[in-house]
Amino acid sequence: MVKTEDQSTMADGWREVFERSRLVPPPSQTVRLAVESHLTRSHGFQLSLSRLTAPHLPQSQEMQQVEEDLTYQLRVTLFDRNHQHFFGKTWKSPPQRMKNNKISFNEVLYFHTSLRLPSVVVVLELVSFSPKPDGTQQALGRGFTVLELFTNRPEAQAADADRRLDLRHGSPRTLLHPLLKDTDDYSGLLKTIDGAHLDCVVKIHPALVSMMHLFPENVLVSRDENIPGLAASPTGDALLRPQLLKMLPFTLNRLTVSLQPSLEKFESQLLQLINADCHNTKQPGPEDTLRTVVIQERRLHVGVHNGWCFLDKPQVVVLEPLASGARGRADSLSKRSTLVKDSSATSSLPQILGLRSSVELKMTNHQALAIVFQLEYVFSAPIGRETMLPFTSSSRAAFLQCIRWGIWCPFQEPPDWKGEEIQLVLQAGAKPNPDGVMVYGTEMSAKTQSSVPLSAAGTAQKPVSEVKDTIAFRLSSSLERKASSPKTSLRTRQEDVSRQRRSPSSPSSSSHGQKHIQAASPPESPKGPGLSLSQLAATSRYPTISHSSSALPWQQSFPSLLHPSLLASAHQLSHVACSAVSNIAHLEMDLQREGDVSPSAQNEGDQLQELPFTPVHAPVITLGMNVSSSSSVSSRSSLAHLYAAGFPEIVDCSGQVAEVLDPTEPVPFDPQREGTDLLQGNLLVFQFLAFTRTQTAGVGPDWPDNIYFTFQFYRFPPVTSQQLKLLTSDKVQHKTSDPLPCVLASINKDGTVNSGSPGLQVQFRVDDSFLRPGEKRWFYRYLALHTMHIDIWDSDSLLLIGSTAIELKYMLRQGKSAVQALHEVEVLTTDYVGEDTLLTSAGLGRCLASSPMTVHTIVRGRLHIRTGNIGCPVDSSSRRAADVMPSHPHIITPRKVTSGFRGGSLSSRNILQLNARNTSQAHRLEMDGDRGLLFRHRIRPDSIMPGEHNLNEPDGGRRKFSCMATVHQREGKESVKAAKVMDQTKESELAREPFHIKPREERSKAEGIANMLSQAITTQHLLYASLGSAEYMEFVLKNPFNVPQTITILSDDPELSVITNTEEWHYFKALTKTPTPLEENMFHLEESAPGPRVYLRPKESINIPLKYQSFLCDHITALQGPSFLPAGKGSQVAKKNLSNIVAAKTIKVTFKAEDGKPLAICQVNVEPTPHVLDQTFRLYHPELCFLKKAIRLPPWQDPTVGDQDARTCISVRCSDPNIICQTRMLVPGEPQDVYLKVPGSPSPQIKMFFVMVFTDKWMAAPSQIWQIYVHFLERVDVSCVSGQRTSQSLVLRGKQAVRKVKCFSSHPKEIEVDPEGVFILPPAAVQELQLKVQPWRAGSRFLYVNAVDVDNQRLVTAWLLCLNVHQPVLSKAFEVCVPVGGGRGSSRKITYTNPYTSSHTFLLRSDHPDLLQFKEDKFQISGGESYTIGLRFAPSQSPGSVEILVYVNNLEEKTEETFCVKVNYS
């Protein structure tokens, strides 16, 4: 047994580092501000101090005499000027002498911090040392300077730059003066020393990330600092490129804690002191006799400390009272902990605390490395009435207290502890400890109250005065035990789970009975248990928390970078809020005795542990951001055929052909040149010219025959084109390997091909009448940076052929009159294929979902499209300054009404005319004063004729009746005779109308006056809003009274709210450049109040910040299918239309005084505008079940933001509240996922919604808006064998009307539908469809079948076929060599014998018809005879090998034999 009686002697190396590395913590307010600002990730910095020039340092008479003996030292400390607090640890340089008025330090400092706030600065002080007569030195401050690290001022230097700092008179204590608090600029208050300056360089040092766990934050260390765990560098600067020492695994087992004089007496004395202290600190009551503090749990913190900090978060284990002779055992041969009873034990009462399992640690061989133990007790205290804690089921709360602690350095002396028991003396009382906590200690802690000596195995008894609290354990290397130990390290498993999941809340994956508890704690706090008081106060003896983190399947890939939104202003990224997590590992196998287990716990059973797994990632092709090559790949003959089709030319206003741009060359973008163009109008033209088919497996060479397009450009409504025919030319000869482009021609509604100009032309006009104020520059940036997503559909089957995208930057004119560019882009789609499965008994039982999926990108063809931009002149008389923002458009100022009420009617029209100066939109917001009369006479307000303006004239009643009669006649609801009778009846009622109206008008006079007064204080504001974008405004509120008022602000719509957060208010003011004052803590918030309150002095005016933001919209989806637009001259003009996705609304914000009466009303009229789409996704999913998808985002990269934390700060919102859309914060620097959970719908419904991705903290404007379509289909599972036909029945149900239906499949060569042609589907009828599936490749695949109404070109029903295709059983295998090149293939023969006694007809099939062709596809052979199968292998131009399957099928396409031919091309 190894004893460590003198702890100070044992740990001199560690204690020396520990005493030298103690530091002052930063202000808690600063730490809280950094966390609220999402500054939680620490960053490394390098500070180089070169030299100090000081020709005129202040000197005294004594100093002049010993100037030649002076030495100088530089001291560096971190300082928070907002709270006037020095923190961290002061670094001191070696003394240097001055030469030629210059002092060369040449020191390099390193530190890392997460407090990247403008208030955190570095203070550098110059100190001189002069010798004293007694041999000591006198230190005198000669000046100081301040280095700003993080600043928001634009005129300040960057954080990563060279600095020249001027020295100032005085001492750094000057910074504690009240006048300097919250001061950013010291130049006006502190006098500089003439000519004295310090040259330094500040750099961001990312290399410190790998070793930040070796020393704490806010500590300045030099390059030669001794940091245990860091390898020494031959250059002397180990921190420049840090190299870590190798960490080795170790195991602590047989751990026991002995407290003197005995465990029972120790805890009894401890409880007596605590209970006495509780009774002394509160008023006694009748119920205090029942309130006693009890011990709920005994814990031990075990961690590895290098003198600077813990290398990892300490593990927390639970100790259990054991008999004195028992030792906890967790050997490698036992999966469950057992107790080994010592023969010398004579008492069965609990005498020591023991750990029944082992603790895994990772350490490196360094003499200053220590294992730190902290014994902690959890006490359960009763909750009194005077406390503010919530009551639990047991009405008890819990608190923690450190009892003892100790350290042991295993590598300080020769390691003779291997295999031996180590006994360590525990410390108590007020001594500095690594955890920085108060430790329990009494006068009797070092003595004993009993004569029982300390006894250990193999040791003699000691005197009573030498008996101390000890901890005993065994330490062994896990590498030595790894071969014989099946047990896995808890920490290793946690790291494996976190590595697989990449999630901050990894699931518990420990061995049987182990539990993990995770909770958030500040980085600087001790690594405590992380349990809340309510959880510790639970009735269970050992409370646990179960964590489950289920990753969503089918995780998507998003390979491209995010870019800031073009409609949003320059908003910056916020930081990542990532709180530290501490683990509590309940490592006990069975902490409760068998007699203590409740029956209910036995019935419930053990808690299941979640197993780590890797979800399947099936990426969606993000063509909108990842553009395929648009360079021309067609041959010259194909291009000649294309240009001979006679497409319309793109010409400018003068009739000249537009200048042609090469899409393979970069396009310069100058926003100023675009803004100064004389032709401010832009006519953007998209010409869809031709489509080149690509041979695809499963479809014929003539597929597709008819197509149509869907896309959306900028803020215009989505475009769905009409049907386009693919015209082929039989006159032109071409090779099969280079198919000619098929010219597109529009199809009329009767099905005939339009004989006019070929192709499809779509135009968009963008001028000052379309653009909003200030939007023009964003439109040009949209063209420069964005791509337009295009979906190509088969207009016959309504199946998606593929998607593509074109770059819009070639539509920038850059001062030219007109430009055009020809693009040839690939049309891509994705195919999900699983791994092959062999047709065996085991393979038949495999599930489709269990096999991993592989995503293949398939080229379906090439689209030829021409883009152009024609400059158009704009009429100067009607031109609106779309590129000029009005001055202060975000400030709403109520205007004074100079004219009073001149009498007359109290109708809302006259009131609005009275308040006409407040708004230009008053005619759209008439009140219901006149509408009440209209509804009383059953006339809708929108049925008034345009000629009727004033319904309050004397004959207004007759005009109302005539309008009503006209409406009834138009609608055909009444005959002419009934109209005459009604007119006569109404005439008689009109004669009596004044007698009924007069008393009613008398009663409504008060309401009219109130309405007039309300309109007089109403200020209207017109707001243009788009989906997801926040619109900021400020309302100028004035107190017209001579007494102060507390105003309550009420909004009748939650989408329009008051900004009460000062930081958010400052953000939007800077974003919108609103030059108004900002006031902190302006609003008073109460939970019971209807809204925020603000205090106004008499006659005072303040600005109330308001924000409108809407995430919801209408999700009406157009029916799937082409449109029937008139072809005309071959062009389709997309006009300006208002978006119907977001509804227009009117929102009132009322400012009420203390008496409840409105002081002012702000009426905001929201006009919706369409939003820009950045990406379109189309997903297919089985009906009536949840769709779970994950789209992976890359790390954010914005060159304008230097903060690395901003890359992972991403938040998302969904336009549909029924869809769960969230994002999870992963490890900083790792990609982030957007998770979607969409409820299912019946087939063939399509659910459309928008996902908004925000990259700024306050979500001012979305950086990306995605439009997601989810197509729900009926799922059909089919299990089959490759090469063999399998039949499957489907049921098609009729709707309300008779339809002509035809069924189409996505792979006609693999799926046949019976009936094949058009059939009649009667209403409410049931039609059975027979599918004949014959796939040629093994694996898991997804195919589609659509039932289409051929008359209306609309989708009736869609099916999703989930194929699980097995490999066939091979009969024979062959190998053949085919020469490469030469243009000639190879011929071979295979002999096949008919196994039947009668004659049979066989069919030959191949899974690679492009590589292998048969001499005869069908042959007949008599029974028992042989037939020679002729094989012809196609030539290849590159070496390699491929396996080709040859199927011998019967007439029913059932496979008789399968041959495998391996072809080697050499």
What do these coordinates show?
With 1466 residues, the chain is mainly beta. It is 12% helix and 36% strand. The protein contains 19 helices and 69 strands. Strands 25, 26, 27, 28, 29, 30, 31, 32, 33, 34, 36 and 45 form a twelve-stranded mixed beta sheet that branches. Strands 1, 11, 12, 13, 16, 17, 18, 19, 20 and 21 form a ten-stranded mixed beta sheet that branches. Strands 35, 48, 50, 53, 54, 56, 58, 60 and 61 form a nine-stranded mixed beta sheet that branches. A hairpin with a 5-residue loop joins strand 46 and strand 47. Helix 14 runs parallel beside helix 18 (1005-1016) and helix 16 (956-971) packs antiparallel against helix 17. It is globular, with a radius of gyration of 41 Å.
Short précis:
By secondary structure, the protein is mainly β. The chain is built from 19 helices and 69 strands.
Annotate the secondary structure layout.
Elements: E1 2-4, H1 7-10, H2 12-20, H3 28-36, E2 43-53, H4 61-65, E3 71-80, E4 85-92, E5 102-113, E6 120-131, E7 137-148, E8 161-168, E9 192-204, E10 221-222, E11 248-258, H5 263-280, E12 294-305, E13 315-323, E14 326-329, E15 338-341, E16 350-354, E17 359-363, E18 370-382, E19 396-408, E20 421-425, E21 470-477, H6 478-481, H7 490-501, E22 515-521, H8 533-536, E23 555-556, E24 580-586, H9 599-604, H10 636-643, E25 659-661, H11 671-675, E26 681-693, E27 706-711, E28 719-720, E29 724-727, E30 742-746, E31 760-766, H12 776-785, E32 787-794, E33 800-807, E34 818-834, E35 837-838, H13 841-844, E36 853-872, E37 891-892, H14 908-914, H15 929-936, H16 956-971, H17 976-1003, H18 1005-1016, E38 1018-1025, E39 1031-1038, E40 1045-1051, E41 1056-1058, H19 1062-1072, E42 1083-1084, E43 1093-1096, E44 1101-1108, E45 1131-1134, E46 1145-1152, E47 1158-1168, E48 1175-1182, E49 1187-1193, E50 1211-1214, E51 1220-1224, E52 1232-1238, E53 1246-1254, E54 1264-1281, E55 1286-1293, E56 1299-1305, E57 1311-1314, E58 1319-1321, E59 1326-1333, E60 1339-1349, E61 1354-1367, ...
Parallel strand pairs: 1-20, 23-49, 25-34, 31-45, 35-61, 37-39, 38-47, 48-54, 54-61, 62-69
Antiparallel strand pairs: 2-5, 2-9, 3-4, 3-6, 5-10, 6-7, 8-9, 11-16, 11-17, 11-21, 12-13, 12-18, 13-16, 14-15, 18-19, 20-21, 22-24, 26-30, 26-31, 26-36, 27-28, 27-29, 27-32, 29-30, 32-33, 34-36, 39-44, 40-43, 40-46, 41-44, 42-43, 46-47, 49-52, 50-53, 51-52, 53-54, 55-59, 56-58, 56-60, 57-59, ...
